[in-house]
Specification:
Largest sheet of chain A: 5 strands, antiparallel
Number of helices of chain A: 9
Radius of gyration of chain A: 21 Å
Number of domains of chain A: 1
Order of helices and strands of chain A: EEEHEEEEHHEEHHEHEHHEEEEEEEH
Oligomer: homotetramer
Distance between the termini of chain A: 28 Å
Largest interface: A-B, 110 and 110 residues
Strand order of the largest sheet of chain A: 1-2-3-7-4
Structural class of chain A: alpha+beta
CATH architecture of chain A: 4-Layer Sandwich
CATH class of chain A: Alpha Beta
Number of strands of chain A: 18
CATH topology of chain A: Chorismate synthase, AroC fold
Strand content of chain A: 15-25%
CATH superfamily of chain A: Chorismate synthase AroC
Amino acid sequence: MTANTIGQNFRVTTFGESHGGAVGCIIDGCPAGILIDSAEIEKELKRRATGQSKITSQRKEVDKVEILSGAFEGRTLGTPLTLLVKNKDAKSSDYEYLKDKYRPSHADFTYNQKYGRRAWTGGGRASARETTARVMAGVIAKKILKNICDIEILTYVIQVGEERANIELDEITYEKIESNIIRCPEEESSRKMIKLIEEVKREGDSVGGVIECVIKNIPSGLGEPVFDKLSADLAHACMSIPATKGFEIGSGFEGAKMKGSEHNDSFCISRGNISTKTNYSGGIQGGISNGQNIILRIAFKPTSTILKTQETVNESGEEILLDNVRGRHDPCVVPRAVPIVESMILITLIDHHMRNVAQNNLF
Amino acid sequence: MTANTIGQNFRVTTFGESHGGAVGCIIDGCPAGILIDSAEIEKELKRRATGQSKITSQRKEVDKVEILSGAFEGRTLGTPLTLLVKNKDAKSSDYEYLKDKYRPSHADFTYNQKYGRRAWTGGGRASARETTARVMAGVIAKKILKNICDIEILTYVIQVGEERANIELDEITYEKIESNIIRCPEEESSRKMIKLIEEVKREGDSVGGVIECVIKNIPSGLGEPVFDKLSADLAHACMSIPATKGFEIGSGFEGAKMKGSEHNDSFCISRGNISTKTNYSGGIQGGISNGQNIILRIAFKPTSTILKTQETVNESGEEILLDNVRGRHDPCVVPRAVPIVESMILITLIDHHMRNVAQNNLF
Amino acid sequence: MTANTIGQNFRVTTFGESHGGAVGCIIDGCPAGILIDSAEIEKELKRRATGQSKITSQRKEVDKVEILSGAFEGRTLGTPLTLLVKNKDAKSSDYEYLKDKYRPSHADFTYNQKYGRRAWTGGGRASARETTARVMAGVIAKKILKNICDIEILTYVIQVGEERANIELDEITYEKIESNIIRCPEEESSRKMIKLIEEVKREGDSVGGVIECVIKNIPSGLGEPVFDKLSADLAHACMSIPATKGFEIGSGFEGAKMKGSEHNDSFCISRGNISTKTNYSGGIQGGISNGQNIILRIAFKPTSTILKTQETVNESGEEILLDNVRGRHDPCVVPRAVPIVESMILITLIDHHMRNVAQNNLF
Amino acid sequence: MTANTIGQNFRVTTFGESHGGAVGCIIDGCPAGILIDSAEIEKELKRRATGQSKITSQRKEVDKVEILSGAFEGRTLGTPLTLLVKNKDAKSSDYEYLKDKYRPSHADFTYNQKYGRRAWTGGGRASARETTARVMAGVIAKKILKNICDIEILTYVIQVGEERANIELDEITYEKIESNIIRCPEEESSRKMIKLIEEVKREGDSVGGVIECVIKNIPSGLGEPVFDKLSADLAHACMSIPATKGFEIGSGFEGAKMKGSEHNDSFCISRGNISTKTNYSGGIQGGISNGQNIILRIAFKPTSTILKTQETVNESGEEILLDNVRGRHDPCVVPRAVPIVESMILITLIDHHMRNVAQNNLF
């Protein structure tokens, strides 16, 4: 797995800086014959876009998808599928004042340490703008998976700051998730979360949160036994999203408190199939999917960009004060991160399905 | 990254089942000229071995390291370094009664679903026995890193069940960690943890725990910006360890509760160098190391093997009761998992260093 | 190495079909700080372009390079460098008559067998149009190599049909190669080759040829001992060029006729350095460069597109006659293939240099 | 593809030096359920072994295969399959006189340049001893392919020195190939070849040769369109064999002399299937197999080890004379190289089949 590529058989490479010409992805290994439609991809991009509600950055992104290669007469060819969205012309001068300053908890300093230079116009490659490319690839991954199994993926916000929702797994629907701007399927919590974000926004501050994802109807047998456990690769995929600080599968950190006699998922027969009575494993045992729901959670830190004055240093090594004069930022990343998390999971699942087929469906 | 291989430039492939001929690893990409010594590797293997204390499995492993290739006159050659330990002759008949039964929360069922067969003699490839190979590779990784930087890595248990230690980062030493059988550097907590494990063991039950790791004196610039963020690759490496359920870096899930103004790590000048006042980032920003301490935590579930009667099903799809008649198991995996976690981190770090050098140290 | 990517540390992925939106490449792993200039790349593309002389296809390509990502203020950033050239609007209707026919020795049939569909408008992904992307990547590879060593690469035509030039290695210069439209540094042969191609063109036929390449001033130590021998990777890179049928290094197939006492390259001391008296090895011994000139040759078949009536079958499995009504084709690919060969070699060399540095320049 | 690994889905890693503990291979990605039998592998190893006839090295190798992991109850498990043969105890002292000398056209010098050291006892990793591991992997590859298609692979010597056999493709059988010690299916030529090798041997010299391989009944659709063309990957695999200097597919270098109207393989209908009238393509078009016979040739240089006095230099940079006092060497490598070539081709084919299935057999 290379730096800007994820996957072994379904290989997604992203490219682009926030203020360069475009951001996009190449999918190498995409099966031929998949219907492809810019409008369908653009619809999903709107879930990730800025300006979608009062609690996201107010910058207006209108992402128009170009299919540059790999499709013909509306279907994929099997050759590299290149999808991109052009970046709007942004005035570099807006960022001029940041040119030589290291914003706290941003990647300015580490990029300079690694490469000796950086695109200082708005985050460059480290900008969340890059995740647009991931969402485009996620749409394709989902379309392929829909041809293979009856996969259902539900991704939602369960926590903002200290506000944690009480979620009943069986009652979540896509409609409930999308019914509010924070994407929390539990109504009362969603209201509290939105209120909290509005407060934080007023203060020019930001707040963190947690996203949970449940994947249903996934075949058993996905995942490789040792280093490429499905759980390990999902952790890798999710922790590659900007601003992530933690990953849990099934019981997660709570599981560390439990006893084996409580935590073990007893096998049973349910409607003629082997099932488990509980699902502390989160659908993965020994790194391989067991056919139960996959459940995972990802922690996001508060957005690094805030409108308060902060202490930092500049490239000359002087301690300075930094005033962020840009008026637009995301006070909390989680509502927009929902489709990104979903995409990373879908990309990981289709890749593992292909790997499984290559080894185990030969005869 | 392939199924049984981890790393891109420092590529560790492990092989072996718990009751096959041997378990071992091949390191491809290992620099030439590294001093190599079986005794040094065996010493580290003892930290992972069963039978090391009253709170681990009482099975006696005495692992003797064979260097099968890649070394000559006591130093590595640059060619694939193959290290292995033979498995002791185990009586397959001990496991005969498990042959067609799916142990709850073990990998028996998922391996059968994936491959249509499994080595039913004691866990096969899914056994923690495989991690012996990782520890051998970790010793080599550490030796190379010691030539590059003054790396210090401190890995220890911070939680067993509900018992959480209060750790002062600055006071931890390797000696304190190794001063007790649970490997917790805080004395009072260590006593409570050991007591808890002894209780659990008496009940024939098991309990989970959390390991924390601090890595000091790592150069900045390690990690790739997008999918192969150092944090993502550390998550992948750590979540590939058996029994893991969660991973956190820096502030982790607690960070989700915080505000940006609290969480942002202000840059400052300390003894002439750019440093940060706080370290909620856990030493990694934008996926790249910033030279501060890397701090991470990993949650382990309670061991799946318990001595209590459990409900399950067999290969014929019948619901049955399972009595584990083997008298030996690990009531808690964390003390033995410490060197495994350490090895996975060291392997990840040296690989990222090599990747960084390949791209950024050419001229 | 994935289907549309070559290289491990300097990873070039190409994308695009001949009549899709664009063809281009992403270079992942490109060092930061390399000066990048569209005009410089476009200059090299002219060596590959159609319409450059009376012996190439008369279709007029004017390739304008767009740098879509990975550069900032005229230098590379270390992030994925995306370069592309748009395809000119081509009328699909020109190819309509080929839609369901399998052109002999083209990839129409095999693409359909593999993917169940193909872009029938002019070759699609199998078109030599894709090699435009390789030449762009080759320019970048060369610039990086020039920073590392005093590399000189001389690539030229030594054979067209039965006409073989007698080349004195020491007398070849870039200027002599570029002094004629066939790119053969030996003047008399070049005239005969051009005459032969003109004859073949008049007949609506095509002819094959051989390209030779000499690379000077390459450091020793490049190449991996076993599967990734420098010679094996050069063979892979060169044989990935459309229309190639053979590859030789050093003595090549002639070497099979020789005795060891003739073929062995005796080491000697020349100007204080270890050198060899002869160079039948072609600069590579045991898969690793020895510092002598690397010499290789590649055989190209005659262009498959000819203007004569041919027997073939269509998608319905009927035997038919095919008349190629397009008046433009390359009667011989070798003059335009020179920069493509060069690019594949340069990409291979920089990748191996990076791999070598990653393992062997750590301390 | 890493240095000591070949393949993407069927990944073969070899390890071992000629005078280390063992040479062996790990196959990662091997399907489960394949019958595995040491005796079957050992039988194939005898075709590669020294001491098999008067025209090979007289050193007696008796290779006993150990299956170290990945098999259980006589069948593969799907986990890494580790196969090895121990090296016989060799007296290092036999090689002491070579310790600081660079043998002409051997890898002594290049290994030292790359790694700063080498195993000077008999070639180390550069020894053809490593190919034992390839042949073991080839046996497994063949067994899997036999489950997928009715593959027939015929590999034989067509040239030794200037002596070239006239082979009728349709008349070759495995029995004819194995009927003589040179492995040339044409009887008269085989006698001349053997005579030539005996002469060369008497002189203490060596001679080169050419191996041809025909693969029948391979499915169409194998091979990736761009860099991983089946032809390019076969070139890579074959040119990774020690002592190779050239590779041809189909018409090869002769194809460069031909016209398109001669060389194009007209499609036709034969017994209801799409076939071609000629096969200058060698079974591969646009990098993808077309279902016709794959035909390729590989040139081998004369063995570098000869018993004549040669000029060379030592590690101190002094010009010296080298007398090879060892009485045993292979006067010509081609008879023993036949199973090695076959193995590399089989490994490449099964890997490409898996890659094809992963992308194109999902629904």
